Amino acid sequence: MDFNHKLISWYSDKKRELPWRETSNPYYIWLSEIILQQTQVKQGLPYYNAFITQYPTIFDLANASETSILKLWQGLGYYSRARNLHFTAKHIVNELNGKFPDTYNDLLKLKGVGDYTASAIASIAFNEVAAVVDGNVYRVLSRYFGIETPINSTLGIKEFKSLASTLIDLHQPATYNQAIMEFGAIQCKPKNPDCSVCPFQDSCVALQNQMVDVLPVKLKKTKVTVKYFNFLVFMDPNKKTLFEKRTKKGIWQHLYQFPLIESEKSLTPEEFHLLNFEDYVLKQETLDYSLYNEADIVHKLSHQHLHTKFWIIDVAELPEEAILIKTLTKYPSPVLISEFIDNFSF
């Protein structure tokens, strides 16, 4: 039995029952693929269910506000996915008359859709022979064929895409693509896979050569930068505070946060006292503050580690843009901020 037939046989017996596998609707498949980028199934599934409940059609998603979409996305991370999701929904509804592109090449033109996502949608929704290559596929192919080319190198990306395209089942592209991704997710796992029950144990190069733990090869990650964040949690007698929308490009774009001052190191209360708050309060002489967390809360992102302190500042009066504290949870905010709101006793 050749590679793809054995893989499909395994899939028919071992696959997980997931809602996006019960449909060929491109909207649902696209939604699931965007959610599952950088996200495990167990974390993404509740979000998928929430989105199709609140936005059952692409027209519903297109007509929603960005704020409501970001709020529903809250906690899933990589928020550019949600912004691209909304942009693309509006594009399909307004420019394509609500008709989802039905070929790999046309899908690639959509914002937020790259080679992998276009291949997945084209094959699963439209049965096009377009091989997927994601993290799971890289791992399966590198181990089975013993390929040591770094998967995140230009050469590796081309090599694995070419190999995947030669292996895909021409008659069952949708099933094959889902099978190899599922195999990497639950059988050929990143760490400590149970090779004793693997259907490829007799032909896997990595297993035969004791290379399972070293494959796939990946070039060294981008250097992680450290930043020091000081969030200013203002509180006035009217139970109001300041909550700002991040408009600049970068992390958390269009999400809300308390006013932020970045510093070159973790500040002591004495150093914090020297900061200027004129942009935020009307009567600075009445300012009184305390530190919520003495030890920095370290929030780790893919390329940044944020060392964070929350400063509670009591003031006599805030500017007109201040909002009621009780409305804070209505705004989409990063997990770091939403967890503080949930835990702090306002």
List keywords for this structure.
346 residues, alpha+beta, Endonuclease III, domain 1, two-stranded antiparallel sheet, 40% helix
- What's the number of extended β-strand segments? 9
Helical residue percent? 40-55%
CATH class categorisation of the largest domain: Mainly Alpha
Question: What series of H and E elements makes up the topology?
Answer: HHHHHHHHHHHHEEEEEHEEEEH
**Overall mean pLDDT:** 92
Cα(first) to Cα(last) distance is 65 Å
The gyration radius over C-alpha positions equals 24 Å
CATH topology of the largest domain, anyone? Endonuclease III, domain 1
Structural shape: globular
Main β-sheet description: 5 strands, mixed
SSE blueprint and pairings:
Blueprint: H1 3-14, H2 26-35, H3 41-54, H4 58-63, H5 66-73, H6 80-95, H7 104-107, H8 115-126, H9 135-145, H10 154-167, H11 173-186, H12 205-208, E1 225-235, E2 240-241, E3 244-245, E4 256-257, E5 260-263, H13 269-273, E6 288-291, E7 297-300, E8 304-314, E9 323-324, H14 335-343
Parallel strand pairs: 1-8
Antiparallel strand pairs: 1-5, 2-9, 3-4, 6-8, 7-8
Helix pairs in contact: 1-11, 2-3, 2-8, 8-11, 9-11
